[in-house]
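Sequence in, structure out. Go.
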Amino acid sequence: MYMFKYIMKRLGLLLMTFVIIEIICFVLIKALPIVIDIQVGKDRDIIDAQLRARGYYDPIPVQFWNYIVRIFTKGDFGICLNLPEHRNHPVLEVFSSKLPPTILINIYSSLVSVPIGIMLGIFAALRKNKWQDQVISTSVMVFISVPSFVYAFLVQFIFCFLLGWFPLLMKSGYDYFSWPMFQSMIPAVISMSFGSIAGYTRYTRAELTEVLTNDYMLLARTKGLTKAQATTRHALRNAMVPIFPSIIGEFIGVLSGSLIIEKIFSIPGIGGLYLTSINSMDYDSFMFLSGFYILVGLLASLVIDISYGIIDPRIRMGAK
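Output:
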């Protein structure tokens, strides 16, 4: 019952937060002038008539109401007006075509970074204050401090230009599960994995180091368990309680993509589409993608909080 009340409360707060942010985004974007990226002429007259028919010149409150009504009654999130490759295409259709590569590169990155980061964190915790721990901890601080686009340029220079193992940019096409396509995704996956590996390593090392110093670990050793048995049966299980929710949240967040990495490697995902919609001042696509990113972030935080109570039965969310 406590968990149910907590979930309902969080869902209500999530919905309220989402609506408030969407209203702010809508008001701010509609306060900008309408820009049509085409030459003056017949095409502009057609677009202008289309804008009037869709209520783009109405007062902002009326536009927002009509926008909400179109979404819930027709599933209409608007059309792309200023995106050169997708002009006059529905926003939802363009978004659906851009989603698969974003999901794939993020899933590949998570599958690489999660096990490597956790294993390095465990190794560093078991070798605490030794040279292995010092090397890993120093490397983690470096990798966390350096922005991801720096890794992207280094990966392109070393693996793509000098060694020639991978293409500089992602292969075009829709054969996402072919070997040439997967090979072209590897540089982006490597670039995105550095930061995640460093984060998981630091988090795992900190949690496991704390658990290893608890009294029940000494009790387990006095009962006859070896260090490896005590670590595997007791320390790792308790150390993973705060770590697994973050892993779950990362897999929920694979939809969000990486704006900079997608742009550098020419990945036709929603990250690049979002940047293009901002630069082109394409209002409908900007509103849809902003709402999408906001919703993914809120859902990821909700899933992380709920998963604590599922992973560890001792935790009861909402209980007093």
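Check: The chain is about 70% helix and 0% strand. The first helix runs from residue 2 to 30.
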